Queue: 2 jobs
Job 1
Amino acid sequence: MIDNTFIQKNKTLLEQEKAHLQKLLSRVEDKSGAPKYPDFGSTEDDNAAEVAAYEANIAEDYDLEKKLKFVTEALARIAAGSYGICEIGGEEISTARLEAVPEAANCVDHEPRQI
Ligand SMILES: [Zn+2]
């Protein structure tokens, strides 16, 4: 069952994850908030590699943003006292699931997205 000790443990994990994600996002973004455009060189191969890296950065950036959003929402649920309650069905999410996915907002049966 979800007790206070369990919630505090996951809160620590989520805060660490949030700090980690923010650090990663500050690395892939420049000051304008856009992913950095890498400069490998000026040959055609270099330019193709730059485009591939740029696209990978955008994809990475998007995943990190999404994950950060889930983590931030989970911390908000802890603050609101609704952590560990399935947002769709209203039942308690199993501790096994919350250990595997601390930011989970739904039980396995009501999982609308892959985390
Ligand atoms: Zn549910």
Job 2
Amino acid sequence: MAKFKKAAEPVKVRLKKNDLVEVTTGKEQGKTGKVLKVFREKNQVLIEKVNMIKRHTRPSPTTGKGGIVEKEAPMFVCKVKLICPKCATGTRFRMTQTGEGKKVRVCLKCKELIDG
Ligand SMILES: [Zn+2]
């Protein structure tokens, strides 16, 4: 029996913490930053200094401080591109396996390994 391909397969998050990414769409387009956190189950990433939102906080009883703090909000992975260290630009990549069976990412443009 042939296996049918599932129509709605969840997007695989292939980004990792500390990856350098570029935003490709939306109001943050063109911004680059480091991935701080990956939310695999939500297909979202948190990028340093990108998609900042203002949060109102109550004064804390310990520090006595409150007010508005700016913090990063998660973005969907489909809105960001991994930056190839060699091309120095947002790029598309594919997964490949090394001889040792290690999964690595390869830039489709320059064919260089993105993972060291
Ligand atoms: Zn490249």
